[in-house]
Amino acid sequence: MTQVHQLARHRRYNLNDVATALAAAIVNDWLGRCGPGSQPPTYTILCVTDLVNGMIIDGTWQKMLVVNTYVPNNFTACTTPLLQGPAFSPWSSFGAFSVADLDINGLAGDGAGKYMNTGFNPGTGFPSTLSTAMILYHYTVTATGFGGGAYDANGFITAPQYTDHNYYSYNGAVAPPTSLITGVSPGAGYYCASRVSATDHRIYYATSGSAHAQLGATDANAYGGTMTNLAVYVHCVNNNPAGAQLFTADRISFFALSSGLTAADSLACFNRIQAYRKAIGGGFV
């Protein structure tokens, strides 16, 4: 019996339930990649299992490609994505990230040189480049840079709060007609930048005190679906030819890449992620 199956017995999970069994398999795969010396505490494992189980029941997990829950207990576990997908495991760390940057609320950048390379290539990693999404939960915003992404002639990047105090989501062309949504940032919280078709690119936001809602107008500029082949970075963006730039000092507590998410999908994801971070004890606003 695997570790999560043993824990599940104490949580009264019905292991005949498909969602519960699948969640246990997903979490055990993650624990295996963390390695024997980097196992999170039992309670953290249960919280992560609850998150996955809930997302499976909601039907949103099936759209996920890469998921990192930013567990607070161990740096290796924090940088090892829960769902690896077509990406690195663990993520490659640059700029001397260390356990000192990690606490109950997530992992903080320095706005200067610290970032993670996920290894995810948007040009090949998405089943369809006309159906893409990035979820970022920023526990803090410091108006320093971009939360994550990659761009050249085409962009897949998100900034909850850039240096001008605006949020940005590029999902497609970075030159006119630009696939861009921007406006005054509401601050720290959950952000989901999603494209569900060639003419439907939106960004959603939520916190404990702000109901889940769309930010700004829908980007309806026709997009041909050509996506950058640069790897997605987190805590900055990967730019051709400059490489890592636009670093953020924000503390991030959740990151995911997925197929395009509807408003209902994004709301369901927020509710599950918010419940997970509250159960962990931090990393939510």
Could you describe the 3D structure shown?
By secondary structure, this protein is an alpha+beta fold. It has one domain (3-280): Jelly Rolls (Sandwich). It contains six helices and 17 strands. The strands form two sheets. Strands 2, 5, 7, 8, 9, 10, 14, 15 and 16 form a nine-stranded mixed beta sheet that branches. Strands 1, 3, 4, 6, 11, 12, 13 and 17 form an eight-stranded antiparallel beta sheet that branches. A hairpin with a 6-residue loop joins strand 8 (154-159) and strand 9 (166-173). Helix 1 crosses helix 2 (18-34), helix 2 crosses helix 3 (42-58) and helix 3 (42-58) packs antiparallel against helix 6. The chain is globular. The model is unreliable at 5-10 (pLDDT under 50).
In short:
Helix content is 24%, strand content 30%. By secondary structure, it is of the alpha+beta class.
Unreliable stretches (pLDDT < 50, length at least 5) are 5-10
The Rg value, from CA coordinates, equals 18 Å
CATH topology: Jelly Rolls
**What is the number of helices?**
6
**Which class best fits the helix and strand makeup?**
alpha+beta
- Looking at the overall shape, the CATH architecture is Sandwich
The overall average pLDDT, rounded, is 93
Secondary-structure element string: HHHEHEEEEHEEEEEEEEEEEEH
How far from one another are the termini?
37 Å
CATH hierarchy, class: Mainly Beta
- Helical fraction equals 10-25%
Number of domains: 1
Shape: globular
Proportion of residues in extended strands: 25-35%
Write down the oligomeric state: single chain
Largest sheet: 9 strands, mixed
| DSSP, total strands | 17
